[in-house]
Amino acid sequence: MSETVDSETVDSDTVDSDTVDVVIAGGGLIGAGIAWRARQRGLTVRVVDPEPGSGASHAAGGMLAPVSEATYGEDRLLRLSQESLRRYPTFVAELQAATGHDVGLRTTGTLMVGFDADDMRALDDLHRYHRELGLPAERLTPGEARRLEPGLTPRLRGALHAASDYSVDARALHNALLAALPAGTLVRERVTGVAVHNGRAVGVRLADGSTLPGQTVVVALGAASADLPGAPPLPVRPVGGQILRARSLDGEPLAERTVRALVRGRHVYLVPIGGNGMIIGATSEEKGWHSRVTVGGVYELLRDATEVLPALAEAELTETLVRFRPGTPDNAPILGPTPVPGLVVATGHYRNGVLLTPVTADAIAELLATGTLPAVAAGFTLARFTAPESGPGRFASSDTDSAAGVGRAASHMPAV
Amino acid sequence: MSETVDSETVDSDTVDSDTVDVVIAGGGLIGAGIAWRARQRGLTVRVVDPEPGSGASHAAGGMLAPVSEATYGEDRLLRLSQESLRRYPTFVAELQAATGHDVGLRTTGTLMVGFDADDMRALDDLHRYHRELGLPAERLTPGEARRLEPGLTPRLRGALHAASDYSVDARALHNALLAALPAGTLVRERVTGVAVHNGRAVGVRLADGSTLPGQTVVVALGAASADLPGAPPLPVRPVGGQILRARSLDGEPLAERTVRALVRGRHVYLVPIGGNGMIIGATSEEKGWHSRVTVGGVYELLRDATEVLPALAEAELTETLVRFRPGTPDNAPILGPTPVPGLVVATGHYRNGVLLTPVTADAIAELLATGTLPAVAAGFTLARFTAPESGPGRFASSDTDSAAGVGRAASHMPAV
To answer: pLDDT at position A330, please?
Structure first.
């Protein structure tokens, strides 16, 4: 049935004969989002994940904040992010209508606050960048900031208000996406590789030794997408993040909107969730898969968070966790075809997986349904890291054949 | 079968006809310890607990430190504690021999450290008290302390070394005690009250409505011992404690001995456990059952712990939990008979449950086997809170009949 990249022979008895249009490796927000949109296009889909939503999607703060995340030199990513944010209300409305699930979309904006002169210079730089890009943001005095969020410490020095940022309950969004999929879509197995036959992806290999066949395979394994047997090497690395959850014991909200703080040079964000919850994030660690919830990581997050919002000290600390962002060389996702015919990737969303879920799901579903990656995603293919003309940010692959192959991939999917 | 204190009738079909000698309500360290010692005396025993060892025993730091815990005005408790410590090596050796379980007894002593002049005055006061009592303890310079524990911060001001303190892995000890009990001893049900017939305790009432009969009933429910229907009111209150666990990621020990620190007036203790573990404790909260793991509680423990032992910052934070110490008006346990014939209590161990397990188990087993509470425990009966002659510390009960009744209880158990 399949001549896979390694030497094992697949027993045809264990192969599902009901070949679907699309097999998606990874059932986090990206995989589940693609599955939902692909189903809406009439494609048959399987999502393969032993514990869907237990990775980065489980930890995500859920900020939908292209403006407050904006960084010099990432204009292309900013435009993709803004496009995804623009699609969010419709995406959520459709999903809520289809499932009856509330996904906790908040449109209350983001307040960025600083504590010392350097923090304020950083906020002013960001504000200038906003104006250059024509993005809405407003400088506030400490008093104005505290009128918006009375729980903020009086010790802050100033603030920047990005009223058009949203946030969403990433876990609720993920649950809704799963609920929107037809029964039987989810296959609770671990993907160990891409099954390749005559140079073409024909399914995914599972931990039990079987192969789940599909006309097209989508790799949406987040930080685990690199080095998947059968797939070309992807320039994705795990960036560890420790993140906490708290909730007020009196049932009252701890804040009404996202607060991003620079506390004398240290970053912390606070995202209200549910009626009385708060997500406190996040460390950023380049330790491969070795990051853990540490004494120092939790201590610094709690210290900075309580400095910003003192009443947090009385809140219950309900979760401490670490997960892994799928980082890429240019901090932008990898979307679309690969040099392996039949193999599509949607990974490398780094800090923006929740924000980029709608545009990723739409673009990949379009690719799967029509064979063409839409223009909005065309700049984000794997080819940008490997094609000679792609300039800086080139992915230094040790697999020369594969890298050469990627050069031939454009924004069109190899013939299905 | 039983005329219980409330109006429900017990269906005799649901009553176990195989009446045992002793039914123990509560399977924490105290209940399990009593059960083991009572079995060794030839008594038949049942321990009733839906989740034995999940209460204070699960959180305990396991310090066996009568000297470093010594407080002015608690000489009687100190003597009981010292007696229990004296029994620890034998208790543990017998238990390890019976079960093959290692319970992690450490005899490496306690190092008390201080950071400012007030901290050092408190350590000097404690040292003076030690000398008055003839207890071994030695003042160390910061350099001497760091030669014992190289991980200690150079910023400490001085130290006091109590070389004769021990510590034990409270969870391992509890597991060993359960393993030492014959199969069938443990009944995984929740106790809802004491079954009383003709004024005498005849068993415990279970959440499923049945009664588990026993010749004698022992209440060992820790902080949950107060206000048990059928038992006299006990002056036990829950004192919340948040406590953390960490472990080094390189597998190396974080310290060799218990470190108790006064960090500019704030208390924190660090108890090494296993090969690379550390228990970090503890808050002390008088909020009834309302204490939770809070942002502020965890933050302060982590801040103080990392100030004492900076390398802790790199350790994995593996647990954050809150449990409830069974506090009493004089911080000492309540051991022995009650005004209700057939009803014995062993609770109120406050901060010293692990330390006092051997002497409590021995004394209560002696009472159960012979009808006489041994002299070592005679000063710790419920009567001290209720008898007119007991002076200060009298338990102000609103139940006058019961309080009067307790006055008649001496250190001998009412006729079985």
So the answer is: 95
Residue A75: predicted pLDDT: 85
Please name the residue that has the structure tokens 């040099």: A339
Give the ranges where A7-141 is alpha helix by DSSP (H).
29-40, 56-59, 66-69, 75-99, 117-133
B321 part of contact set with chain A, CB < 8 Å: no
Choose among A69, A257, A318: nearest CA to B298.
Answer: A318
The pTM of the full predicted model, rounded to 2 decimals, is: 0.88
How many alpha carbons lie under 13 Å from residue A341 in its C-beta half-sphere?
7
CB contact under 8 A, B313 and A296: yes
Q: How far apart (Å, rounded) are the C-alpha atoms in residues B314 and A295?
A: 6
pLDDT less than 70: residues of chain A:
1-17, 72, 387-416
Q: Does an H or E element contain B57, and which? A: helix B56-59
Q: Where does B253-399 have alpha helices with state H?
A: 295-308, 357-370, 375-378, 383-386
**CB atoms B299 and A302 under 8 Å:** yes
Partner B contacted by A296 (CB < 8 A): yes
Main-chain dihedrals φ then ψ at residue B149, nearest 5 degrees: -130, 90
Among A250, A221, A242, A181, CA closest to A20:
A181
Among candidate residues B64, B94, B68, B66, the one with its CA nearest the CA of residue B80? B66
Strand-pair category, B191-197 with B200-206: antiparallel
Q: What is the per-residue pLDDT across B285-343, written as a single tens digit (0 to 9) for each?
A: 999 999 999 999 999 999 999 999 999 999 999 999 999 999 999 999 999 999 999 99
What pLDDT shows up at residue A69? 72
DSSP string, A267-320: EEEEEEETTTEEEEE---B-BTBT---BHHHHHHHHHHHHHHSGGGGGSEEEEE
Render pLDDT for A383-415 as a digit per residue (tens, 0 to 9): 999 866 444 333 333 333 333 333 333 344 443
Do B296 and A305 lie within an 8 Å CB cutoff?
no
Q: Nearest-CA neighbor of A249 among A309, A319, A314, A305?
A: A314
Would the CB atoms of A295 and B249 count as touching at under 8 Å? no
Determine the angle formed by the axes of helices B295-308 and A295-308, rounding to 10 degrees: 130
- Among A295, A298, A318, A320, the strongest candidate for a mutation testing the B interface, having the largest count of B CBs within 10 A, is A295
B298 contacts chain A (CB < 8 A): yes
Task: Give the pLDDT score at B6.
Answer: 38
Contact (CB<8Å) B249/A299 = no
- ∠B279-B284-B289 over CA atoms, to 5°? 105
Tokens of B108: 């490496």
Compute the radius of gyration of chain B from its Cα atoms.
22
HSE toward the beta carbon, residue B349, CA cutoff 13 A: 29
Average pLDDT over residues B343-363: 98
Q: What is the pLDDT of residue A305?
A: 98
> Hey, what amino acid is at B400?
T
Cα A372 from Cα A56, distance rounded (Å): 28
Q: Read off φ and ψ for residue A46, nearest 5 degrees.
A: -125, 140
